[in-house]
Each structure stands twice: as structure tokens, then as C-alpha cells.
Amino acid sequence: MPGSVRRQARWWPAALPPRSGTGRFAAAATAVGLLAAAGAVAAAGPWDGGQRTAERVRAAAADRGAYARGAPYGSSLAGPVLAGVPEAPSGGPGEARGVGGAGGSGGAPAAAGLAAALEPLLADAALGPRVSASVVDAATGERLFGSNEAAAVTPASTVKLATSAAALSALGADHRIETAVTLGADGIVLVGGGDPTLTARPAPPGREPTGLPALADATARALKALGTDHTALRYDVSRYTGPVPHPIGPNENLAPVSALMVDEGRLDDSDHGPADRTDDPAGDAARKFAALLGERGVRVEGEPAEGRSPAGARRLAAVSSAPLADLVERALTQSDNDIAEALARQTALADGQPASFEGAGRAVAARLARLGLPMAGTRFADGSGLDRGDRVSADLLARLLARAGDRGAPELRAVLTGLPVAGFSGTLQGRVAGGRGVVRAKTGTLTGVNALAGTAVAGGGRLLTFAFLADGTADSEGAQRALDGLAAAVAAAR
Q: Which of 89, 151, 191, 376 lies at a 20 to 30 A Cα distance from 396?
């Protein structure tokens, strides 16, 4: 996405006298070696202007400070996303599980009062006959309200919460996804690592190149250092396995899932939301890379073709994505399906599973089970929620969100900081008027399915997590209004 990711670009030039000819690349590199030289390329401008990043960093700093003081649970102030979770008491573990925040000294709302507020709203006909609901106190993990909370139903895009938590648990918030260029037998190989945010678009004026342009810069320098200004180009997508098309088929909400793509395979200038997509994301990325090399004085001979990077191949250059936490925030705020599918596959790779829909589903489920979440009936058919075969319960999502606020799991914090804010950002920009600014939640919408899962600072100043899933709706707009009313009622609970 232009101007929205922070990347690192690296290149490894060889100190060689001028030579030419692509056939001598590998031999020259082996004889002389590639001298590592690092250069950082950073693009300012997080996706939300820095607010979420600042909250996450502040939360992590508070976590570290609390550990240094020996506090068993809880933490000090951690920004608006964690407001409403009380400081931990001085007693032993188990007295409080959440992350401390401002203004959260009051007790949790009474369960009876919460039930009285929510049960009539759950009976709204717009929600249909199958509704799963759960509300949890983020500080203690106590479920304050449940209605069919253990039923595994179709979650739509709220499954991105599970995908995100699994990826953060497997890889850590600071993990970056790399795209590299290596030396092949007769030229160079563009190796896809699965970065869903790789862009071919030029950097804004005054900023360093990022993404594919930065990779082309570094590659051209390295090739010229090797004494050549022309090369053959292969591209390697072997990091991912299994079917490339999503089971729903071609769709404007998702590109074919590939380890190599640029600008999410979009065929227009958009950077989020529905758009026409290419049916050959890897080939398009390689052709754009070839054009960028040409602009930098390196001619690519023939058409780029799919191939494999040789085992142990020397690397000429690489660029890295923004940290995984940033990708999670983007996926949740904008409900980005391409990023979500990449997060699921990165989880599979981290856990030794095939990077396919099936392997990713197994890896996500295993990671959530390790977090101690209720897994009965769950199924992860994809990472984005576009597949109707996905099944999760409201209790799983509500407890996952509470877990993301636990000081013992700071690596999960981006699950909270990435949530859209009611009335302000992402997919909640025009929703939940009754919870404006105090409700953060992930939406989920498919035909016949409407869902909302997130957090609310209740009337007494306590942070609650909630999930409301309805997978038998006939009136989508009416169902959204009903879900917004439920979230607002959680925020108003005392």
C-alpha cells in the first residue's frame, strides 16, 4: 500500500571487476563471495496515522515496566485501547488477568443487569433464529453473559480475529515477511515470501522507495557490481502450496492466494475494499519487477518464467514487510482478506504445516488451542472468513479478545489495537452510534450472516469483550442495526 508500510531493503553487492554475461553470475559470486551491506528504507505513515501503533507500543512498554516491578498481573496506563481494565491487586496470580488502564477502578457490571439489557435485543427478528452471544470481563476472564455461547456458527470476517491471534502467537509482533532476489543458474530469481502488502507503486515525493521499487534498486546495484546489465528472470512461488484460488472462486474481495503478488493483485488504484483482481498475481509481479529493472538500466531477457531458487543460492537483495503487528492492524481495521489469508499461511509455515488452506486451518486451530481457548466445533476453512465452512463460537471470540488484553500475552496486543473504532475508523466508521469512541469491534458480513466482536468500556469504566454471531439473517441492514444496539448496550452496562 503506498506510503503505508515501513520496509527494510538490503542488497549484497560483490566486489568484482566489470564483467558482463548472465551465465557467469553464480560462478563469480561463488569465487569472490557477496559482501553484505545493509541499507534501511523506511516509509512514514502507518495506516491510521500512528494512533494504533502508539497505543500498542505504549501497552508493551507498560507491560515491560510491570514485569520489572515484579507485578504478577496487570500493568500501568496503556492508552485508550486498554482503558477500563483495572490495575492488578497486589495479591497472587489469578486475582486479575487483564492489562491495567485508566479509570477502571469500578467493578464489572452485574450479570443480571447485563442479561436484562441484552436478552430483549437478541430477540430482534432481524437477527434470525441462530444467534450466539458472549460477554466477558477482560480483567478477570469471567463470562458475564452467554446465550448459545458455545455454538460453533459461521463467523464471516470476525474469523480474522482468530487468524490474527494465531499468527501473532506463532511469529511474534515484530516478525517481517521477506521478498528476496537470488542468483540462479542463468540469471536471477524473484522469491516470494508471502508479503501481502508488497507494492509496485512509486513512493510519495520526498520518500525513499519501498517494496518492489526498492528491491529493483538494490538488485540493479548488485547486478552492476557483478559486471552485468542484463539477466534472465525467474520467479519462485514455492513457499505456498495447495490450491491458489479461494474456494469461493474469482472474487473482487480477494486475489488468488500466492506467495508473490503486488498491490494485492488489484487492477485499479485502490488500496482497500473490493476491486477487480488479476488471475496471475505472481506473473504480474515478475513482469512489473522486470519493468522496474529496465528503468534502472538492467535489461531482462525474454519473458519472466516460473522457476525455483536453487538450494543455497546467493541472495542479491531483499525487502521486508512492515512488522506483523502492523499487518494485523491493517487486516482488522480494513477487513483486508488478502492480508488475512497471508497471516494464516505464515502461521502454517511457522508451525511446519503446508502453507495451503488446509494446512493453515490446522495451524490456526492448534495455536488457539495452545492459548487455552474453547475449541469445540471450530473449523478454519480459510483465514479471511469468506468461506462459509468456517465455524467458531461467540465464547471463543470473546475470550480471545480478553486474552489479547492479558499482560501475559503482549504479543497479541495488535488484535485489540487493530479493531475499528465505533464512529471513527475502518468498517465501524458509520456504525454503533450509541458506542461512539468506546466500542471497538470487528465486523462480519456474508449473505445470511452478520457478526460483531470486540471490546467496550462499560458505564462503570470496566473493559468488556463481546461477540455476537448470527448466521441465519434475512435482513442484513436490520441485523447490523441490531448488532450495533447490542454493542451499545454492553457499553452502557453498569
A: 89
